[in-house]
Structure formats: C-alpha cells, structure tokens
Amino acid sequence: MKKALVIFGSTGNLMYKKLIPAIYHLIQQGHIGEDFMVYAVARRNQSFDDYIEEAKNQVKISIDWTHFKQYINYRVLNVDNIDDYRRLNDEIVNKSYNDVSIYLATPPTLFPLISKGISQSGFINKGEKHKRIVFEKPFGEDLESAQSINKELWKYFDETQIYRIDHYLGKEMIQNILVVRFANIIFEQSWDYRSIQAITILAKEEEGVLSRGGYYDKIGALKDMLQSHLLQMAALILMDKPKEMTSDLIKDEKVKIFQSMTFDQKDMLLGQYKGYTDSEKVDRNSSTETFVYAKAYVQNQRWHNVPIHFLTGKKLNEKRSEIIIHFKDNHDLNLLFPQSSKVENKLVIKVSPKEGVEFKFNVKEPGLTNNIHPAILDYCHNCKALENTPEAYERLFMELLNDQPTLFTRWDEIEKTWELVKSMKSNSQPIVYNSYEDLLNILEKKEVLIDDL
Ligand SMILES: NC(=O)c1ccc[n+]([C@@H]2O[C@H](COP(=O)([O-])OP(=O)(O)OC[C@H]3O[C@@H](n4cnc5c(N)ncnc54)[C@H](OP(=O)(O)O)[C@@H]3O)[C@@H](O)[C@H]2O)c1
After folding, report:
1. Predicted local confidence at residue 343, as pLDDT
2. Residue 386 is part of a domain; what is its CATH number?
3. What is the model's pTM?
4. Residue 395 phi, psi dihedral angles, 5° rounding
5. pLDDT digits (tens, 9 = 90+) for 192-205
6. For substrate, which residues are the binding ones (predicted)?
C-alpha cells in the first residue's frame, strides 16, 4: 500500500527540529521505503528547491539531501481555500497513495479550520480505513477550548482516526515503565501504599524559552508540561494492570487514575525565572509561570495517602527527567542492625537525557564491620542499544503508519487532564527566581523530599 504523510506547518520549528530528522532516520534504517512520500505543506509561496535550501539551514543533523529529496515534496496551501485542499487531494489520489496520514504541526487554533478543509475536500471521510489525522500538542489551551476543538473534530472524523500526540509517550523509557512494573514480580507486588512512601515525577530544563516565547507566554509550565507529559508519566506509574496490553484497556486504566487524582492547592509553588519578561515575544508584564511544583494524591485503595510530587521548569540547574519511587523504611532494619543508619530503597526510572533504571538497596559494608550501606544497581538503557536509541518521533511515526494508537492520547485522557489543571488554577503570582536554589529553599519549608530534586 502506498503511504502519504501530509504535514501542515512544515515551515515551523518542529518540522525542522524533530520531524525531518525522524523521517530521515526511518528511511535510512529501511523502516519506510519507496512507496512512501512526505507532502510538506505550508502557506509560504516558494519553490521546492527554496524549501529544501531553508531546511538545509534549519535542520541540525547531517542529511544526504539528494537521497532525501526523493521522499519529500513541498506544496503551498492556503488553509482558508478549499480548492487548495482539493487540488492536493486529487494529486495524492491520482498517484495512488491510498494510506494517508495528515499531520497538523500548526498552532492548535488552526485545528478546527484545517480539519474542516480536510473533511470537505474528501481527504478523509468519517470512518474511512487507512486515513488518519494527527494533532500536535497542546490540544487546546484549557478545558473549554479543548472541548470545543474536539467537538468540531468529531463532526468530521471517528475517534479511531484521530491521533493526538504527546511525544513523551514515544520515549524509550516511558514505554519501559509498564515493562519494569508488570514484567518484574518484585516490583508489582510492592507497588502500593504499604511499601511506597512517595513518588516524584520531574522534568527539569536548563534552557529558558529561547525563540519560543510567543507560544510559551500564552501557555506556561503548568499547561505545557504538567497537563501532558508529567500526568501521562504519572498515569503509567499509578494505573492498575490492564486485563490485556491493548490500547483501549491501557487508556481505560489511565483515565481511572486521572479521575481519582486530586491536587493539594496549598502546596503548589509557581515560579518565573528572572529575565523571562525580557525574552523575545514575551509580554513585559507577563505573569506566566516557568516553574511548577505541585503535590497530588490518588483517592483509591492502592495509593491511599501516598503523595505524588510533580516538578518542572525552565532555567533550572540541570536537564533531567525522572520518575523516583521512594519505598518505605524497613521497620526491621534498626531492630536487627541497630548500629545502621537508614537507607531507603529507591527505584529511579531515568527518562532523559540519561535513559535507564537505577535501584538503591542495602548491603553490608565490606570488611570487619556490620555496617550497612547503600548499593546501587544501575541499568543504562541507551548503552545497550547498538546505535542511538530511537527518538520519540521515530517511534510515533512508525506507530502511526501502522495504525497503532497506543502511544497517542484518547479524548477522555485529554479531557480529564485539563480538568485536573483547571482544579489547580491558582490566583497566586509566580515568585521570581534567580536560581534553582531559591526554589529549593522554599520547597524545603514545605517538607518536600529535597534530596532528589
Ligand atoms: N517546536 C517544538 O519543539 C514543539 C514541541 C512540541 C510540540 N510542538 C507543537 O507543534 C506545533 C508546531 O510548533 P512549531 O514550534 O513548529 O511552531 P512554529 O515554528 O510557530 O510553526 C508553525 C507552523 O504553522 C504555520 N502557521 C502558523 N500560523 C498560520 C496560519 N495562520 N496559517 C497557516 N499556517 C500557519 C507556520 O507557517 P509560517 O512559517 O508561514 O508562519 C509554520 O509552518 C505547535 O502546536 C506546537 O505546540 C512544537
């Protein structure tokens, strides 16, 4: 079956930074071949050669452009003009591409308009097989806008044809969460409030907003990171075992977690890094948060009273995304080994930039002593890969082209996560931070588990 991938917004940062490199790697590795074509679509009136010249300037990886040009076209399309959609659809149909994915790498405000054009021009008919439409995140800017976008989309497409991206779900270690949990009896049997003290989910960045101030200032850390990536990680960590590993059954379990999660308002901390309001395209009086700390609980039997700490932000001390499971103290430790200081068991799932799993446990110190000290089992996931582990977008493209929706988010997941963010809405102004230390000092007073942060 000949496959076409039509990308709207292909003069944007995402196309050059992530999508072209991912597609190129898949071609190089033979995962997609001669029966595949990318239609790069944008409003700029320029030739294919001009587009490729611009791409050469913007794309950061080394590409054999002569080879890559066989797999990509550029088409100018005005998103308001139905004839432009029809012309492109006719071309794709005439060239016998009968498996078509439409990818919207545009601002979310354009999702309803482009969806309407796609539907009215006959690109995708409701319920049609081998036709699908992909939406980049964020899906909406709040609960109400997400609901309104989705209502429009359901007029034109079946839920099975809609793929909503959260690229974290394409990351190797995010996919590894369910394997680590359910393929290892030692973890699954102690995966509840009786053994686990607390869970920390963090995504720290060193960089500021760079050139994305225009987008970021309208959204902020809470909506950009917590509503999507952090809550998705939490759901995979907290959900019950699905009856089978099918897309819908996994999503059903994730939704149950979102439904029973509550945030503790009084513990929330919002911050804005010093100098943020001087960034390009950022409002000089902006009160957008670039840092969030929040604490949640899940009101079910398994997670009774276990705090889940979320932390994310820009201009912090390091780039690190991790999930940390803190196990409870072993009550017998000091009875049996009174001279020992406590060492908690800890499981760390390292998502980025390092990928792996670390487990901290107690052993006897070597030598003529009975002291106990911590040892760490450290599994490096990317060290085991023969080449680089695949980028998230490579995996997501493969799943998309093979009609596999597991790594994409279903509407009820999006709706519930926006409801959670709405419930956290706070009128408090973010505090301005000079450094990460400033934030840690405040968190210390809130008795957050500082040693991991
Ligand atoms: N960049 C990232 O790292 C990243 C990461 C995750 C998610 N995303 C999401 O991916 C999407 C695209 O992001 P981006 O960073 O690539 O944005 P961008 O650099 O601003 O590019 C957006 C694309 O949409 C087009 N566009 C904007 N307004 C338009 C309009 N009114 N009519 C027609 N075309 C229009 C732009 O065309 P012009 O070039 O002609 O303006 C460009 O091709 C966004 O939803 C974003 O949230 C991006």
Report:
1. 77
2. 3.30.360.10
3. 0.95
4. -60, -45
5. 999 999 999 999 99
6. 167, 171, 205, 224, 314, 319
